[in-house]
Amino acid sequence: MDYDYNKLAQLLFPEVTGTVEDLEQKYPERQLKEGARVTRFAPSPTGYLHIGGLFGALVDVLTAKATDGVAYLRVEDTDKKREIDDGVSAIINGFASFGIDFDEGVTGFNTEKGAYGPYTQSQRAEIYHIVAKELVQKGLAYPCFCTAEELSDIRAEQEKGDALIWGYFGKWAKCRNLSYEEIEENIKAGKPYVLRFRSNGQEDKRIFFDDIIRGKIEMPENIIDEVLLKSDGIPTYHFAHACDDHFMRTTHVIRGEEWISSVPKHIALFKACGFKVPKYAHTPQVMKIDEEDGTKRKLSKRKDPEAAVSYFVEEGFPKESLIEYLLTLLNSNFEDWRRANPTADAFSFPFNLKKMSPSGCLFDLVKLNDVSKNVISVMTAETVYNYITDWAEKFDEDFFKVFTQDPDRSKAMVNIDRESPKPRKDIAKWSEVKEYFSYLFDEYYEPDFQLPENISKEDAKAILTKYLEVYSADDDKDQWFSKIKDICEPLGFTPNVKEYKKTPELFKGHVGDVSTIIRLAVTSRKNTPDLCSIMKLLGQDKVNSRISAVINSL
């Protein structure tokens, strides 16, 4: 319509006195080095932190770090119907559990850091209304008084007819050409309205944009008159994020591939507002192989416990393990980098968006376990002890009490076969520790002596009886093993494994069989870390008691 848009803007926003120019001065361009990227992770507080969210946040943080830029956390809480109580804390705690640290943004409930806030959308209403008023002044936004029933009728008409897409546009945009007098009359009558974008897109035109991960993408222009402000004055996601990304000076919008279809409307909004369009990078979804039919599918909140970041916390995966594993999914060259930099902080990896695969990333718990075993194997005993106690205090109170009653003994326990050139790689998460070392605690030890097939009861009894005569907890490892070898020949076993393999018919077994019988008697396991160290921790009396109990049972 041809009328004074300034007059309309004043009618719609009488309380708004600020200007976009005021905002430009309040939130100036960031003083960063050339090439520095400003990224944001912008979750909604509508539930737990999804593993896909951690994946996305990691991409944002690494991208900023690799360029000496800034990564910030913005909370998009404009959808109050879906918001949950204390949803912000769930997000913050999830990131903190895995060492994701943002340079700016929300840091907790009603707390934040940085000069470009507020970083919570519900606190930025003034900004959105200033920009919205200017759009009205430019003739690029208008009030729409259509009721839910009228919008439903429009949709039904489009579904029956030949409309290429469904939405509020063209001949279906009934409020687009209302006169000033009609608008004023409706407002005086108290009719609720939304503010819509007046799109100048055309059905036969297309846009092109470069996606850093996916390359050049071509799509139809946006022709929809999208809602900018809802009837309560709260902005829609599309409008709020355009304002926020501009005034927080975001250079790179990194988000999931499900947002690709929204790019045309977002570019149209940026341009209409006079804002520079940011660079886009749409990350692949986190997928898994469905156990039922073997197909790829998205991780499901309903089906997959590992979809929630809290699952990894409760299971006791170290934060380093999950980050390390996610990095193997993000960049194919990470594992080569890790081999060349075995002790470097994972966050110092020179991450590159262009090296991300555009196809879905397969999340594999088996691979995560393998990665985690490697990560834990190179930790110091002190670090492992602290991690276990922190985890147990929260998730296994009984084990916490048992494990911490003698800290020096527990540290010695987790140090068995650790801090060596070839450490054992047996533990993937802290929830496994109690079962893994149960034989070292009377509270959890369950005797279970089952003989190997090649050893008779008589021979087992003879081995254990003879060993009880010579064992001393004071022996060092060489003395300890020497005594096991010494009892072999009198009992018909050879201390030389090669000799046994050469002429097995001459012997009942070899020194490995003898030590296995001792191991079974002391731990009820065929496979454990260094047995000499285990027996020292158990002590002379307990070793004697367990071996004697087995002899009696035989």
Search tags:
554 residues; three-stranded antiparallel sheet; 23 helices; elongated; Arc Repressor Mutant, subunit A; alpha/beta; Glutamyl-tRNA Synthetase, domain 2
Strand order of the largest sheet: 1-2-3-4
Unreliable parts = none
At the first level of CATH, the class of the domain at 457-553 is Mainly Alpha
How much is the radius of gyration in Å? Answer: 33 Å
Distance between the termini: 100 Å
Principal-axes geometry comes out as elongated
Helix proportion of residues, in percent? 40-55%
The CATH topology of the domain at 457-553 turns out to be Arc Repressor Mutant, subunit A
Q: Could you say which structural class the secondary elements and strand pairing correspond to? A: alpha/beta
SS summary, helix count: 23
| Share in β-strands | 5-15%
Number of strands: 16
Instruction: Provide mean pLDDT, rounded.
Output: 93
Biggest sheet descriptor = 4 strands, mixed
CATH architecture of the domain at 457-553: Orthogonal Bundle
